Amino acid sequence: MSGKKQSVAHKRQEEIKDRIEELLFSGDGTNGNNTNNDEESLYDRLGGVFAIAAVMDHFSDNVLNNDIVGRKSKNKFLREWSTEKAPTRLAGLKFMRTLWVCDITGGPFTFCASSDRPTCPYGKGNLNLKNAHCALEISSAEFDEVAGELSRSLDHFKVPEKEKGEVLAAFAAHKAEVIV
Question: Whole-angstrom distance between the N-terminal and C-terminal Cα of the chain?
Answer without folding.
Answer: 42
